[in-house]
Amino acid sequence: MIVLIIVVNVAYSLQAGLVVGQGFTSCEYNYNCTANTNLGVINLNGANAADPYQTSDPVSKAEYFWKPCTDFTVSGVTAGALQQSPGASIQDIGMHAQAFCDVLDGYIRFNMMSSTFTRFTYVKCVCGAASTFIFDNEYSSNDFNFIFTSNHCCPNYSPPGVRVTVTVSPGTVLVIIFFTGIIAYFLFGTIFQIVLRKAEGRERIPNVSFWSDLPGLVMAGFKFTFTCGHKLGYREI
Ligand SMILES: *[C@@H]1O[C@H](CO)[C@@H](O)[C@H](O)[C@H]1NC(C)=O
C-alpha cells in the first residue's frame, strides 16, 4: 500500500502586525532614504509621493510641505520641508543633505536641518495604515514637529501582494509530477484509443486489460505474502 502525503509549504513574507512604532532604541540614517533600526530597516522610498505632503498649524495658519526622500522647489526655495507663514516668504526648514534620524520615546524620527543650520524639522514616524502627515507643534520658531503615520514607518515593510515567497519542497514537486503523469497518461491514452484505434466502450481506457487485472494481481500478491504461498498452492523455494 502506498500512502501519499502532499505537503505544500507556503511562507508569506508580509508585514508582522505592528500597530504603533514603539519599541525602537536605535536609528542609523542611510542617505538613500532608509534607516537601520534595532527592529529592522525602515524604508521611506515607497512613501515618496509625487506631490509633497501638506499640513498646517491651526493656530498660526502656517502651511507646511514635506517630501520624505527628496528636496523640491516652491516659489524658488528648494528644501525637503518648507514653511509658508501667512504674509511671509516661504522658507526652508530642512534639507535632505542635512537629514538624520533619532529615537524619541520609542519612536523613530526622521529629521532635517535647514541650509542655514538654524531650523529643524522633526518627523515622528508612526507605523500604521493611515498614511497621514500632521503638524504637531512648533518650538521657539526653530523646531517644527510633525507626525507621519504610514505602513512605510514599519520596519521591514513590504507592500502586500508584491513580495510573496512560495516555497515548494522537492517531495511536493515529485508528487505533482507523479499525478500530472497519471492524468496525462489516461487523457492521451484515451484520445489515442478513440482516434487511432477506434475503440468503443471500456476499450477506450488505455491498457484496459492490464488495469482491470491489476486489483486481482495485487490481491494475489497480498495473499501470497501473508500465507507464505501455502494456500494458493505456490511452491516454496
Ligand atoms: C541603503 O543604504 C544602505 C547603507 O549604505 C544599504 O545597506 C542598503 O542596502 C541601501 N538600500 C537601498 C534600498 O538602496
UniProtKB/TrEMBL annotation:
**Span of the secretion signal?**
1-21
Keywords (A to Z) from UniProt: Glycoprotein, Membrane, Signal, Transmembrane, Transmembrane helix
Instruction: Give TM regions.
Output: 173-196
State the source organism's domain of life: Eukaryota
Answer yes or no on keyword Transmembrane helix.
yes
- Any single Gene Ontology cellular-component annotation: trans-Golgi network
Q: What is this protein called?
A: Uncharacterized protein
Species of provenance: Candidula unifasciata
Ranked from the top, the taxonomy reads: Eukaryota, Metazoa, Spiralia, Lophotrochozoa, Mollusca
